[in-house]
Predict the structure.
Amino acid sequence: MARLVLSECCGLAPLRLRAGRGAIAAPAPPAALSAAALPRGPAAAAIHRDWALRAAAGGDFDPGAPPPFGLAEIRAAIPKHCWVKDPWRSMSYVLRDVVVVLGLAAAAARLDSWLVWPLYWAAQGTMFWALFVLGHDCGHGSFSNNPKLNSVVGHILHSSILVPYNGWRISHRTHHQNHGHVENDESWHPLPERLYNSLDFMTKKLRFTMPFPLLAFPLYLFKRSPGKTGSHFNPSSDLFQPNEKKDIITSTASWLAMVGLLAGLTFVMGPIQMLKLYAVPYLVFVAWLDMVTYLHHHGHEDKLPWYRGKEWSYLRGGLTTLDRDYGLINNIHHDIGTHVIHHLFPQIPHYHLIEATEAAKPVLGKYYKEPKKSGPLPLHLFGVLSESLKQDHYVSDTGDVVYYQIDKMMNTSAQNSD
């Protein structure tokens, strides 16, 4: 699901800001909070230490409390070169991933062994996910400063894995602009208790019981989440503004072209071969996408706040995201696990996210949670996901700072069915 150019102010209203093609324009920052107005040198360092000490002070820490720092302070702590986009470097990652995808497919087709196919499905599905992350960078404008290059590469990468580039780009923009807001967030947002209670048992079961949430993305593209309507393929959907219709038609046409290509290959190669070469890896990719996006916005170990009304701000919403460690997968999927800084400043290229995160940690203090180290493979994250799905069911209908609550009756029903 042309990206965000953040102002350096905090407290943005939860509006669905719109812009034409290219990066998203946010309101201009107040002069008093602009990076240029911040103290430099020893004074800035002293202020950063003070923020870090206050955020890391002993006693109970309330993650829903307004942070003692602003976006401008976080931005000032990040080295300037971290904002530089190198299109040649970005394209090198595309070339690397495409070569690996084609090589895996050729090797699996040649060997054609049931000892090889499961390994191929896991590897190729992960590479599809890596392609998605690069297309996602195109949508944010962090791939390069050239909107045409971003659009062409983004359409090719996303269409190849059946994602409508512009449709998803725009809805993902809405997610970034409103993350942490109960009503206005776009993906994996909490359900208010009244809406949750209106769902039938089967809908709840599909939404909160493994492995069904790992297959949610295609349905989301066509129907969105409960409580929201619209399609990522329909230019008249309320997801989009009238001036974005041409973009949606373009991405939907590209998606249909890929469907046609897959149909032609199925006719030539046979349905079983295409099932093995493409369909199963596609499902693995969908599982990766749903798992990663869920884990970055839910933390059952430390409950994350969600906001309404005046309590919400762009900064406070962004701080409710989580970094996750994926072991060997970190490099393969382009360090998307470094999610907090990505959410606050999505224009930073993925190859600078780790450095930017390390630089920002002293400012963020306890508002940043170190990810649990996973070892070579992130197997523990399946347990985290499963436990979160058992606990994070709905939020209160009232209140401006709310936390996920548990539907104990649903968990009891699940245990009885087991």
The longest strand covers residues 4-5. Strands lie at 4-5, 24-25, 306-307, 401-402. Confidence is low (pLDDT under 50) at residues 1-58.
